[in-house]
From TrEMBL:
It comes from Agelaius phoeniceus (Red-winged blackbird). Keywords: Activator, Cell cycle, DNA-binding, Nucleus, Repressor, Transcription, Transcription regulation. GO terms for molecular function: DNA-binding transcription factor activity, RNA polymerase II-specific; RNA polymerase II cis-regulatory region sequence-specific DNA binding. This is Transcription factor E2F8. SMART domains: E2F_TDP. Residues 96-165, 241-327 form the E2F/DP family winged-helix DNA-binding domain. The lineage of its organism: Eukaryota, Metazoa, Chordata, Craniata, Vertebrata. It holds the Pfam family WHD_E2F_TDP. Gene3D superfamilies: Winged helix-like DNA-binding domain superfamily/Winged helix DNA-binding domain. One of its GO terms (cellular component) is RNA polymerase II transcription regulator complex. Residues 1-44, 439-461, 526-565, 768-817 are annotated as: Disordered. It is found in: Nucleus. InterPro entries: E2F, E2F_WHTH_DNA-bd_dom, WH-like_DNA-bd_sf, WH_DNA-bd_sf. Belongs to the E2F/DP family. Residues 531-553 have a biased composition (Basic and acidic residues).
Amino acid sequence: LKSPLKQASTSQLVLTERQPDCQPLTTPPKPKETPPADPWTPTSNLKMLISAASPEIRSREQRRQLSDSSSEVLQTKHCLQEHLLGDEYEKSQPSRKEKSLGLLCHKFLARYPDYPSPSQKSYICLDEVTEELHVERRRIYDIVNVLESLHMVSRLARNRYVWHGRHNLPQTLQALKKVGEENKYIQQIQMIKRREYEHEFDPDSERNEEMASSFGSSEQSEMSFVELPGVEFRAASVNGRKYKSLRVMSQKFVMLFLVSTPQIVSLEVAAKILIGEDQLEDLDKSKFKTKIRRLYDIANVLSSLKLIKKVHVTEERGRKPAFKWTGPEVLPNTQDIKLEATSTTCSPPISESITSKEQCSKALFPSKGKQNFTRHSSLIKLVKSIENDRRKIQSAPTSPVKISASTYLLIIFLLETSFSLFLSQMTAEEMQVKCALSSPEAVPKPEPSQQPALSQPLGVCPASHSSVSPVILPHPQSGVSYAIYLHPSQAHTVTTYSPGFMLQPLPCANVTGIKSNNSKILNIITTEEGDTQRGQDEPTKSLAAEERPEMKSETSSQRCLKRSQALPESNLIKRRKSDEESLDTSLTFFPSGYLIPLTHCTHGNKAECSTKEKAGVCSLQHTAYSSPITGVIPMPASELKTVNIPAFHITPLNIMLSPNSIAAAPVLSNSCLNSSSTSSAPNPSSSALNFMLQHIGLIPAGVQVPANPPLQHVPVSSQSENISHSSGSTNVQEGKVSYNIATPPWWVEWEVHNFVFSLQFLQPKEPQEPQAVTENFFRTPGGPNTEPALSANSDGTQRTSQGTLYIPQRKLEVSED
DNA sequence: TCCTCCCGCCAAGCA
DNA sequence: TGCTTGGCGGGAGGA
């Protein structure tokens, strides 16, 4: 019977098209349908076709039968039958475009004013609309659902909606943008693109499967509907299918545009985000296809509203359909929008107005606990993945274990984002440092008051108002010098750095080389023990640094050893493994800091790394190192000889992770810190750290966090496995909060290195011309003040696109249809 | 061949 | 129980 029913729709079209000038319709009584005796005879088939047609057709037919002569009906039927059998009629049918949802939406919108008078409410009766537009009810729902998502209509009752027009649109868009930002869509987009890129280079990798399996169930799509006060959401089946509703999907889709720069979103990316990104398309193609279908539906309506426009994005991989935002520019709101949200847990709408931030938190990340910070659902999946990784690791502590690519990607992403935040927060003075570095003679001489710094290794000078103190460090193999940004308070730990450490002569790759390296790197990832604990945060509590129990973790030397396993040069170190392992945890790991390549920095004498470097000793000879902040500090190489510095060891210090992001921190396990090296006393960097954290909205104003997160001692918790329940993302130890991210594994550092290397940040010779950034990957995850800082450095210099992209730069062409 | 998306089945849930 | 609502995916037109 399916075939005849299919034809029924055709007959409907026939009737519709052949009777275009029909009278206005009134709702007729439903005709009694007579089952066809034999659907396969032409006559009975025709009867069945007519009876099976939409109510509109039925009513039209009935009306016609009532008003007109039966002969006319017969004639129509005859014509219909005739045409149904012929090809001619097929050609006279309206094309699909003429029946498109977009066109239908145009017709729908034409019925109502954009800005209806508030005093005069327009009501929408679905029956009327379906009749007047000669369309099935189902299609109207598609339109209305999308319009509802923008609060252009709202449901009043069965069959009845209120038309609001565009009055609420600016407010809605602003709200959506805010929610989108808090939902970290931009980061999700980054991750998806990164993963795509991974896949390009290694399509057959079993990592994909692993990646897929490591993700949990789809929770991403379970997002609540963002409401505005006064525009109440009264969907019929509110509790049942709301989560998958076209409304929510539509809102999410709009959010993607609002948070993206440029405001172009490909269907593929949007679909993945809507699915939740945890379902690899390979594994669930049907789901992906379904999402795409729905997105087309939504896009058609949004296009009719002139909010988006279809374009094509041409990348290396080909031409992809995408949409470009053409709606009003949504400016960052200067005041908190009062929103209401309906949580996904079917709780009643929040009655009282709350600030958008709170609202978003409640709406997007419904949680049961008291914690102020909640983990985004997408991160829960990642945490699961991380847990899986850790289980693998812990089950086989000595054998190489692959960390899932998802985990890896998340780590890289977090580090890079954090690092970019760090860079963006550099003071103007620090920016001047880079210029000073290229011309040492221009560096002012040290003041006597700063002389004590000389006693510190590496010439690290305490800077009273700077969080970091750069130290130039030449890298003999790459010929590129690096500035190490260290906490002055950490400097003393350098002297006790394990002699087992060595320079990691990793190839000095630019950013475009990351991917190819990644494939290898991922295959040689060695065991990483996950010990980092995480707890729920309590930002309002005291944040004073506290001495924590000593961590039972992999020693720094072990970590170094593992790093070295990936390298051919590491054989020697491997042989020394037993020695390394014999070292106790009192060995102090090289303090956290940033190693920034100074490609244009010249030194009178290039430092050389002799073959000793393989044994972990690097002679840095005949070079005076300076701390540009405080001036030239003569630093005889002899003083440095005792220091073993892993040239590529980039340990991001004071990584600033959003509370949601930090949920993934445990994978960055391996804290090789010990209590002896920890200084819990405030140091000059703490103020800067706190300023930054407050600045980007990670902690409330007035709240202080310890300055040396990596040096905080995080006790190994036997319950460290139980992290999924925790939606908090910072460490809570007896009421103390530290934003702690432990020292990342070497391959993470390597990624950061690549990223840093790609920056033109420290190249004063290059004019920092603003370049067209095809895809801005560094939108701030949160905090209204951070956005400008990321697009422009504090001294006004613009970051180049190369520096902005941490995904290898991809040519992106946008063509409009 | 792939993109686009119409179309309608059918289930959830409301009145 | 009938009706409304809307998720979902087959499959066809179009590029």
